[in-house]
Amino acid sequence: MADERFAFVVVSNRLPVDRVVAEDGSASWKQSPGGLVTALEPVMRQTEGAWVGWIGQPEIILEPFTHSGLRIVPLALSADEVEHFYEGFSNDTIWPLYHDVIVPATYHREWWDSYVAVNQRFADQAAAVADIGATVWVHDYQLQLVPRMLRLARPDLVIGFFNHIPFPAYGLYSQLPWRTQIIEGLLGADVVGLQRVSDAGNFSRAVRRLLGYTTRSPYIEVPRTDDLPARRVIARAFPISIDVEAFEELARSPAVQARADQIRAELGNPKTVMLGVDRLDYTKGIGHRLKAFSELLDEGRLNVADVTLVQVASPSRERVETYKHLRDEIELTVGRINGDFGTIGHQAVNYLHHGFPREEMAALYLASDVMLVTALRDGMNLVAKEYVAARHDEDGVLVLSEFAGAADELRSSLRINPHDIDGLKDAIMQAVDMPRAERRKRMRALRKRVRENDVGHWSRSFLRALSDASGGIDRLGADLDPLGDLEWTVERPPKP
Ligand code: G6P
């Protein structure tokens, strides 16, 4: 491996494979679920690319290896780095700040030092495996300094960055003690991709305010500095998606359809099954959803004999204090609701604190009449898109927060403001009572939209922008989409 070089390198905090340790202590690898690896797989295979990332556990040093044709370059984090870089700066500073400070962001200088050091290691590793003139695609908020570090080390590279989470308004972003360094770090890329048009606007505004550079959407003119020549950077929205076809195929399989019927039967065949699926994160608005649901039960607008809410809350970042609190709060609320409204044989909330395989998720989507996505802030929310992709029967109602990136595209959902509990309650009732003809009409429109922009389209558009930005040379030789989709990502005012 020592001198193996790749024309295409993906860099993300987490690798697309999980390490599974069997009872006898032997370790093997399993591809993690999630669209990113599916999206990048065709390009990775065409170009024999490599993926640099962390395996998700501290202190494990591994040699590069190949997993189902994918070259994996693991990067080790020490226990101290997991605490300071991952749990600290990434998930207790940047994560809350970029999600509009739903919980306060914590600023610690030693966390920042660790963030700089770990970003440098990621950059060094990527520089070591990238071929001359290679394309390197860096992902997400954990690695915002990597683009500049990489450009300084390897000016020959074409560098892309995609932020999977929101980029906050300047009034919030300006809290960050290291706000200038982060912006400079990101501007090391040729293309900075963001989820929403508003995120791209927030990013460009931060660049103008902090560095005074000229921006003319989607371009940012970066002048010459002591260490780098003048460059033009592109910053624009590329809304991410899922592998729509694969998900629909899964939902059409007889086994999944049978499982969906079985789930409804196991729930006691209620008139209405409602569903929430989230990582257990304070950005998801799970508490707001439970509040609306319990008030509807309390007021008798919903009856526990007719309706049940299935809440899947997959464990996440469990050593971070705010996540521990959230879990306690949600579980207390669920216990109260079930205690107050449950009857023998009818549970108000079916709470599941674990993740499920894709097959089970597809069956749950098919079994649910109403999908509740009530995020207080969310980069995109792929669960909303999965629900739509699964509903090949053109049934089911999506209640979707306007604070999730998906709301820009999924305009035929029932869009809600999760802070407005009365509005949320009315939308839930509208969903429960919606006639079949309207459900079909809305779901058809949603499905059309989701099909138009699947994850393959997303990755090809990004790589196309990257190839255009670097002089139009299609270095990857991949089949890239033209950038004809600029128009539809522009947010239109909501219908009155
Ligand atoms: C979000 C982030 C990802 C992250 C994932 C899971 O989707 O955008 O970068 O990997 O959450 O979080 P974790 O901390 O477990 O990696």
UniProtKB/TrEMBL annotation:
GO terms for molecular function: alpha,alpha-trehalose-phosphate synthase (UDP-forming) activity; trehalose-phosphatase activity. One of its GO terms (cellular component) is cytosol. CDD domains: GT20_TPS. GO terms for biological process: trehalose biosynthetic process. Transmembrane segments: none annotated. Coiled coil: none annotated. Belongs to the glycosyltransferase 20 family. This is Trehalose-6-phosphate synthase. It comes from Pseudolysinimonas yzui.
